[in-house]
Design brief:
Blueprint lengths: L1 H16 L16 E3 L25 E7 L2 E4 L14 E6 L12 E11 L6 E14 L4 E5 L6 E3 L2 E2 L16 E7 L2 E7 L8 E10 L5 E9 L3 E5 L10 E10 L2 E5 L3 E2 L3 E2 L2 E5 L3 E3 L5 E7 L17 E10 L2 H4 L3 E3 L3 E10 L2 E11 L9 E7 L17 E6 L4 E6 L3 E3 L5 E3 L4 E8 L4 E9 L8 E10 L2 E6 L11 E6 L8 E5 L4 E5 L5 E6 L4 E7 L7 E2 L24 H7 L24 E4 L4 E4 L12 E3 L1 H7 L3 E2 L4 H8 L3 H7 L56 H13 L2 H5 L1 H23 L9 H14 L8 H8 L8 E4 L2 E4 L3 E2 L5 E2 L6 H10 L1
Parallel strand pairs: 1-2, 4-8, 20-27
Antiparallel strand pairs: 2-3, 2-7, 3-9, 4-5, 5-6, 6-7, 10-11, 11-14, 12-13, 12-15, 15-16, 15-17, 15-18, 19-21, 21-25, 22-24, 22-26, 23-25, 24-25, 26-27, 28-29, 28-39, 29-30, 31-32, 31-40, 32-33, 33-34, 34-35, 35-44, 36-37, 36-43, 37-38, 38-39, 41-42, 45-46, 47-48
Helix pairs in contact: 7-9, 9-10
Length: 845
C-alpha cells in the first residue's frame, strides 16, 4: 500500500543518513557513471530546424546521470512532444499504474518510451518504441542504466521543479542581426545577451516585412544559446528583404513562465544607395554616392571566399523626370561602380564610392527628380544573380543663369540688365568669376565714327585656369584684318575649354566646365559678344558685366566691391595697364578647377566626357573644333563673317573712314585719332604678343552727345524708320517675335539708331541682328519642352534668310541647290553641283 511504501522509503533514508551504516552502490560513486549534460537534452529545447541532432543509437550501454547547467536533472516521467530534447524522437520514462521511482539507494526496473508521429499531419504516439531502463536513487540524484536506442532517438532530461516564481525571467538585450558566409551560403545570426545565475532558455522568432508593410513570421525556435541563425536562401528570405528577430527568455526549470520578447532593429539584407544629398542645384557641385552592402560580396565563381578580397561590378543608370523631352538632369563620375568585399562589421560587408552632379542645362525645366538605380546584377551566386537594389531619388533645383551683352560700339547690358555705353578704347576686364578660375578680357579700338569718339571690340581672351582661348583681330587694320583663333595652354592635354563655330566662322563660341560661355559674332569692324554666367556664379562676378546679384543699381562697382556713381570712373576701374592682360601673357600657373570626367548613364546608352555636366541645347548648327585646337595648339585663321563679306564686297566703309582723316586730327572729347599703318601692326614672329597703341591712350572724357541731323543729313525720324525696317522685318525678328517680345526688339532698334547717329553709316543697320539670333536661341533652349510651338523660330536659326531661296532647310542647316554655297546659300559656288554633291553635303551637315 501507499503507507507501506512511505514507511519503507523513510527507513531507507534514515539508514542512508546514519554514519557508517550502509555503503552506496558503486554506480553512485563519481567513477561509477557518466554524466550527460548536453543542454539540448532539455525538454524545453525545440529541435525544429536543428541540423546536429542527438542520436543515442551509438550510446555505450552503462550507468548515466543527467545534469543541466551544472544542476541535477532526471528523465521526465510525462510524454515529451516530438522534435524536442535535441532529437526527433524524444525518450521519456514511463511510470505507469503501480510503478514508482525508487527511494534512496533503491533500484527499480522501468520502461522508457520514445514519442513519434507517423506522418507530419498524423497523431502523436507517445510510446511508439519501448526501451527497458534501470533506475538507481543515489540520494541526491538518479542514475540510469541505459542502452543504445533502436534508431535516431535521444534520452530526455528535465530540471527539478521550483516553487512558482514571483519575478519573471530577465529580459535579453536588444538582439542584433548580422550576416556571415559559409561556402556558397549566407546565414543571418540573431545575437543577444542576458545576465542571470540560473539556467535559462530562449525563444527566438524570425520575421520579415511584407510589401504591404505587415510583419510575416518565418520561423520560431527554442534554444539555450544566446544566438540563433537562419539561412538567406533566396526563396524564403531574399536580398532586399527587411528582417527582424525577437528573443524572449525563460528558466529551464519553469519553461512555462516566459518573459516579454525584445525585438531587434530592422536589418536590410542587400545593397543600399546613400547619396550625400537628396536635393541639389545646377551649380556644378560634386557629391558622393556611397553604395554599401550588408551581405557578403560573392567572388566571380559564386562562393564567399575568406582568403581573398572579391569585388562585384555594378552598372548604374539614371532616369530623370521628363527625360524624353528635356534630357537627363544628372551626371555620374562613372557608370560602373566596383563593390569591394570587406569583413562584415557593424552591418557592413562591402562598399563602393562614386560621385554625381546636376547637369547645367540652361533650360527652364523647374525642379525635376532623377532616379539613380543599379541594373540587375549578373553573378554565379544564386542569391545575388538577378538582384536589383532599391533605387534612390534626388531632386535637382533649377538655377537661372544670366547673360551679358557687348554689341557694336559697344552697347553694354550687364548680367542684371543695366544698360550703358562704353566708348573708351584699351583693354578691359569684362567678366571675372571669384567662384571659378574664369576671366574674360576684351580689347576695344576706334571704329566707324569720323567725328565722335567711338569704339568696338576687336578681340577677346577667355581664361579657364591655366588655359586660354583668344579670338583676336586687334593686331591689324579694321576692315582688312581677319580674326585669329589661338589656344594658349600650359598643358594642352588638360584643356577644358570647348570651342565651336557656326555660320562658317561668323559665330565662335567658347564653353567652359562651369557652363559659362563666350560667343563672338564676328564682322569686318570687330565683334559683338554674348556672355553667359551659370547660376553658380551668382554674387561671384565682377568687371564691366556687373555683379550678377539681381540688383542692377550696384553694377557700377570698384575692384573692392564699392558702388560707383560715375560711369566713366566705373569703366576706367576695369581698364588694364599695358602688358598686363591675357592678350600679352600666358595664363598663370594658377590651377584650373579640377575637371572631372562626367558620364551620362542611361538605361539604353551611356557616354563619358569632360563636358557631360553641361548641356547647351543649341539650335544654330555648330561644328565642334575643340579637338583640332587641342591637337595643334596654334593660331587658326577664320574666314570673316557674312556681314564683313558683304561690306567688303561693296568697298569697306570702315577702312575708308579711317583713311579719310589725317593722323593728327583731334576728335571732340580730346582723344587723338590713332595712326593707321598700311600693314598689320608689328608683332614678334611665332608670338601672340603685339603692340596695341590704344592701351597707351588716356581714358576718354565725357563729350557732348551727338546731335541730329548727322553730318550726312540723316534725321532721327529717318534713322528710326530705317532701323525699324532693318531690324523688325529681319528673318530672326519676324520668326522669333513671340519669343523675343517687343521690348527686346525696341532695344535692338534703339541700338541701331544710336549706331547710325554715331557713325553716320548705313552699313551698321544690320549690326544688331546677331543679338536677336542669340536671344532667340537662348529662349528656344529655355523652352525646350515646347519646341513644336516655335518650329518657325528654330528653322530661321538653322537656315538664315530661308537659305536665301537657294536651298532647302534641314535639321542640320541649309542644303544648297547646285551652284550655291556658304551657310545660307547666298554665294555662287563657282561650279555647277550635281545631285551627288547635294547628297554629300547633306551627309556632312
Amino acid at each position: 500500500t501507499w503507507s507501506d511504501r512511505w514507511r519503507s522509503r523513510s527507513l531507507q533514508a534514515a539508514l542512508l543518513l546514519t554514519p557508517g551504516c550502509c555503503m552506496p552502490p558503486p554506480e553512485c560513486s563519481p567513477d561509477g557513471h557518466t554524466v550527460l549534460q548536453n543542454l539540448n537534452r532539455s525538454t524545453a529545447f525545440s529541435s525544429s530546424g536543428l541540423q546536429d541532432l542527438i542520436c543515442d543509437h551509438s550510446l555505450t550501454a552503462g550507468w548515466y546521470r543527467f545534469q543541466l547547467h551544472g544542476r541535477p536533472a532526471r528523465m521526465p516521467t510525462q510524454c515529451v512532444p516530438v522534435n524536442h530534447c535535441g532529437t526527433q524522437a524524444p525518450v521519456w520514462l514511463s511510470v505507469g499504474e503501480g510503478d514508482f521511482l525508487p527511494g534512496p539507494l533503491g533500484v527499480q526496473q522501468l520502461t522508457a518510451c520514445a514519442a513519434w508521429r507517423i506522418a507530419p499531419s498524423g497523431s502523436r504516439d507517445c510510446c511508439m518504441f519501448r526501451i527497458p531502463v534501470t533506475v538507481r536513487n543515489c540520494g541526491g540524484f538518479y542514475v540510469y542504466l541505459l542502452r543504445p536506442t533502436q534508431a535516431c532517438m535521444g534520452y530526455c532530461a528535465e530540471g527539478r521543479s521550483r516553487p512558482a516564481e514571483k519575478e519573471p525571467p530577465p529580459r535579453p538585450s536588444v538582439p542584433v542581426i548580422s550576416s556571415e558566409a559559409s561556402g556558397h551560403t549566407v546565414l543571418l545570426r540573431c545575437s543577444f545577451e542576458v545576465h542571470s545565475n540560473r539556467s535559462m532558455g530562449f525563444v527566438v522568432t524570425w520575421s520579415r516585412l511584407s510589401p504591404e508593410g505587415r510583419k510575416e513570421e518565418l520561423k520560431q525556435e527554442t534554444t539555450v544559446h544566446t544566438s540563433a541563425v537562419i539561412e538567406l536562401d533566396g526563396f524564403n528570405l531574399r536580398l532586399g528583404d527587411k528582417i527582424f528577430c525577437s528573443s524572449s527568455s525563460f528558466f529551464l526549470e519553469s519553461a512555462d513562465i516566459r518573459g516579454s520578447a525584445v525585438e531587434s532593429a530592422e536589418f536590410f539584407a542587400g545593397i543600399r544607395l546613400k547619396p550625400a544629398v537628396t536635393v541639389l542645384s545646377e551649380d556644378a557641385g560634386l557629391h558622393q554616392l556611397l553604395v554599401e552592402t550588408s551581405v557578403p560580396v560573392p567572388c566571380p565563381e559564386g562562393s564567399f571566399s575568406s582568403t581573398q578580397s572579391c569585388t562585384l561590378p555594378l552598372e548604374i543608370s539614371t532616369n530623370s523626370q521628363g527625360e524624353e523631352v528635356l534630357g537627363p538632369d544628372l551626371s555620374l563620375s562613372s557608370c560602373v561602380l566596383v563593390l569591394s568585399q570587406t569583413p562584415c562589421t557593424d552591418g557592413l560587408c562591402g562598399s563602393g564610392l562614386t560621385h554625381f552632379s546636376a547637369i547645367t542645362d540652361f533650360v527652364k525645366d523647374d525642379n525635376r527628380t532623377t532616379q539613380i538605380s543599379i541594373k540587375p546584377i549578373i553573378s554565379q551566386n544564386f542569391l545575388w544573380n538577378g538582384y536589383s537594389p532599391e533605387p534612390v531619388q534626388v531632386l535637382v533645383r533649377d538655377v537661372p543663369s544670366a547673360y551679358c551683352y557687348a554689341f557694336t560700339d559697344p552697347h553694354m547690358i550687364t548680367f542684371d540688365g543695366r544698360y550703358y555705353e562704353n566708348y573708351q578704347i584699351g583693354t578691359f576686364v569684362l567678366y571675372k568669376s571669384s567662384f571659378w578660375p574664369l576671366e574674360v578680357h576684351v580689347r576695344q579700338w576706334e571704329c566707324g565714327s569720323l567725328v565722335h569718339a567711338a569704339s568696338c571690340i576687336c578681340g577677346v581672351v577667355a581664361r579657364d585656369g591655366g588655359d586660354a582661348v583668344a579670338l583676336d583681330m586687334c593686331n591689324g587694320v579694321m576692315g582688312e584684318t581677319q580674326p585669329q583663333l589661338r589656344v594658349k595652354s600650359r598643358d594642352p592635354s588638360r584643356n577644358s575649354i570647348r570651342i565651336s563655330e557656326s555660320y562658317q566662322g561668323r559665330k565662335v563660341t567658347m564653353t567652359f566646365p562651369s557652363g559659362a560661355f563666350v560667343r563672338a559674332d564676328v564682322s569686318g569692324w570687330g565683334m559683338s559678344l554674348t556672355l553667359r554666367a551659370p547660376g553658380s556664379d551668382r554674387t561671384h562676378t565682377e568687371g564691366l558685366c556687373g555683379t550678377f546679384d539681381g540688383d542692377p543699381d550696384n553694377d557700377f562697382h570698384s575692384a573692392g566691391g564699392a558702388t560707383l556713381e560715375n560711369l566713366q570712373a566705373f569703366i576706367s576701374e576695369w581698364r588694364l595697364p599695358p602688358g598686363s592682360s591675357l592678350f600679352d601673357l600666358l595664363p598663370s600657373p594658377r590651377s584650373s578647377a579640377e575637371v572631372h570626367r562626367r558620364c551620362i548613364c542611361q538605361q539604353t546608352a551611356s557616354f563619358c566626357s569632360r563636358h557631360a555636366n553641361v548641356r547647351f541645347s543649341g539650335v544654330i548648327p555648330a561644328l565642334d573644333v575643340t579637338a583640332k585646337h587641342e591637337r595643334r595648339n596654334e593660331t587658326q585663321q577664320l574666314r570673316p563673317g557674312r556681314l564683313a563679306q558683304r561690306s567688303q564686297s561693296k568697298g569697306s566703309p570702315f577702312r575708308n573712314s579711317r583713311k579719310r582723316v589725317p593722323a593728327s586730327t583731334q576728335r571732340r572729347g580730346g582723344r587723338t585719332r590713332r595712326r593707321v599703318p598700311n600693314s598689320p601692326r608689328q608683332h614678334q614672329r611665332h608670338s601672340s604678343t603685339y603692340f596695341f597703341p590704344e592701351d597707351h591712350e588716356p581714358a576718354a572724357q565725357p563729350e557732348t552727345a551727338p546731335a541730329w541731323p548727322t553730318p550726312s543729313g540723316l534725321t532721327q525720324q529717318r534713322a528710326e524708320a530705317q532701323c525699324r525696317h532693318a531690324v523688325t522685318e529681319s528673318d530672326p525678328a519676324s520668326s522669333c517675335r513671340r519669343l523675343l517680345g517687343e521690348q527686346t526688339l525696341r532695344r535692338a532698334v534703339a541700338m541701331c539708331v544710336s549706331d547710325l547717329q554715331l557713325k553716320d553709316d548705313k552699313s551698321w543697320l544690320r549690326a544688331t541682328i546677331p543679338l536677336l539670333e542669340n536671344e532667340c536661341e537662348r529662349r528656344l533652349a529655355e523652352e525646350a519642352g515646347h519646341q513644336e510651338e516655335h518650329q518657325e523660330a528654330a528653322d530661321a536659326l538653322r537656315c538664315p534668310d530661308r537659305c536665301s531661296g537657294n536651298g532647302q532647310c534641314s535639321e542640320t542647316g541649309c542644303v544648297c541647290f547646285p551652284g550655291f554655297g556658304t551657310f545660307d546659300c547666298s554665294a555662287p559656288s563657282g561650279r555647277r553641283r550635281n545631285s551627288t554633291d547635294c547628297r554629300r553635303a547633306e551627309r556632312l551637315l
